[in-house]
Each structure stands twice: as structure tokens, then as C-alpha cells.
Design brief:
The complex is a heterodimer. Chain A has strands at about 5, 10-15, 20-25, 35-40, 45-50, 55, 60-65, 70-75, 85-90, 95-100, 100-105. By secondary structure, chain A is mostly beta strands. In chain A, strands 2, 4, 5, 6, 9, 10 and 11 form a seven-stranded mixed β-sheet that branches. Chain A is globular. Chain B is an all-beta fold. Classes of the chains: A mainly beta, B mainly beta. Chains A and B meet through strand 4, strand 5 and strand 10 of A and strand 5 and strand 10 of B.
């Protein structure tokens, strides 16, 4: 199985900050990675697919990069509605696996 | 507008069975692979299983933790996805989400709101 490791597990930041969340795969997955945002009590929301492509309707302050084993989600200027938990997921091979999540909190 | 609405969750005893449904609307259901993902209380996301589309013979894939106990199926005429869960264990307690897979890209694009399954005596 491909293990997905996110760092950090939690992060405190302020409105307006630039934030980066990392996701590392235990083996190469090309660009078969997406990112999700989840707020408490809500379903996840898809943000990024194919490592760097923005889902329709997602604000441009979100961006993704990387290929192979190392990936990054960047929020260029944090907004109040961005405080949530973020997950990466690989879909290169079965079983599909998620990172453990990164909780983004208000400083 | 794409909508995915899960139903069928509830309280079930260990060893029991439950069938979840997901009603899809707003898109051509038959074109898409469809997945189930679950989330135990306070935990992260866990992929459960997949059904491919008719063009790919409705074949399925499962996580090791549910293989042999859970069955993913679909009825394209009803635009519905199902998850038959047998031999349920306490560890299966979770919110179960129905998820649409993007055609030819295989990312996840739309999620249902989830349905809670609680396995307890």
C-alpha cells in the first residue's frame, strides 16, 4: 500500500498569512493526487486534482504543486473561512489512501 | 447541479447487516465510477470501495478492511449507488460518504453529505 504522510499535523496561522501543507507518498505516484478541505460536521470539499489543477469554483488563493513523491498545498492569503482540516489522497494505485490530515487553526 | 444524497444509516448490532444507498442527480450517473469513503468519529478519511461504470463491466475494488464483508453495487437506471455491509464490527462505526469519480482523471470531485452508521450492542 502507498502511505501518505502529511506535515504538519496541525498548524496555527493568522488571517492574511501564506500557508503551506506538505504531503509525501511512500512511492512515486506521478501527479495522481488531490486535496480536500473539511470543516467540522461537514463533508469534505474537493480543492485540487492532478496535483495542481483547481476544481471549479475554488478560489485562486489555493494552489497545488509537486509530482512523484512530494506535494504541496499552498494558501496564498488565509481567509477566515479557510480554517479547516486538509487531506491529501493518492489515486495512483489500489488501495486508494489518504493522508492523516492537517488541522489549520486560527492563531 | 450535482447532488449525492446518502441514506440508510443507523444503529446496528455487531454481526448485523445494513444497506446504504446514494441517490445521484444532476449528471450522467452511468458515465462515472463511484466510491464510498468513511470517517470514524474524530478520525481521518478512509477509502472503502469503488464500482466502475458499465464500459468497465461494473468491476469493483475494496479496502482490505472491508473486503469479503462489504459489497459496492449500482443501478444506473435508478441513478443509485449502494453499499451492502455484512458482519459489521464496532470498527465500522463511521460516517459513510458517497463520492463521484471524475471521468478519465479519477480524482474525487463531488461528495454526498454522509450517513452515520453506528455498530453497537
Amino acid at each position: 500500500d502507498i502511505q501518505m504522510t502529511q506535515s504538519p499535523s496541525s498548524l496555527s496561522a493568522s488571517v492574511g498569512d501564506r500557508v503551506t501543507i506538505s504531503c509525501r507518498a511512500s512511492q512515486g505516484i506521478s501527479n495522481s493526487l488531490d486535496w480536500f478541505q473539511q470543516k467540522p460536521g461537514k463533508a469534505p470539499k474537493s480543492l485540487i486534482y492532478a496535483a495542481s489543477s483547481l476544481q471549479s469554483g475554488v478560489p485562486s488563493r489555493f494552489s497545488g504543486s509537486g509530482s512523484g513523491t512530494d506535494f504541496t498545498l499552498t494558501i496564498s492569503s488565509l481567509q477566515p473561512e479557510d480554517f479547516a482540516t486538509y487531506y491529501c489522497r493518492q489515486y495512483k494505485s489500489y488501495p486508494i489512501t489518504f493522508g492523516q490530515g492537517t488541522r489549520l487553526e486560527i492563531k | 447541479e450535482v447532488q449525492l444524497v446518502e441514506s440508510g444509516g443507523g444503529l446496528v448490532q455487531p454481526g448485523g447487516s445494513l444497506r446504504l444507498s446514494c441517490a445521484a442527480s444532476g449528471f450522467t450517473f452511468s458515465d462515472h465510477y463511484m466510491d464510498w469513503v468513511r470517517q470514524a468519529p474524530g478520525k481521518g478519511l478512509e477509502w472503502v470501495g469503488r464500482t466502475r461504470n458499465k464500459a468497465n463491466s461494473y468491476t469493483t475494488e475494496y479496502a482490505a478492511s472491508v473486503k469479503g464483508r462489504f459489497t459496492v453495487s449500482r443501478d444506473d437506471s435508478k441513478k443509485s449507488l449502494y453499499l451492502q455491509m455484512n458482519s459489521l464490527k464496532a470498527d465500522d462505526t463511521a460516517v459513510y460518504y458517497c463520492v463521484r469519480v471524475t471521468v478519465n482523471i479519477y480524482s474525487f470531485d463531488y461528495w454526498g453529505q454522509g450517513t452515520l452508521v453506528t455498530v453497537s450492542s
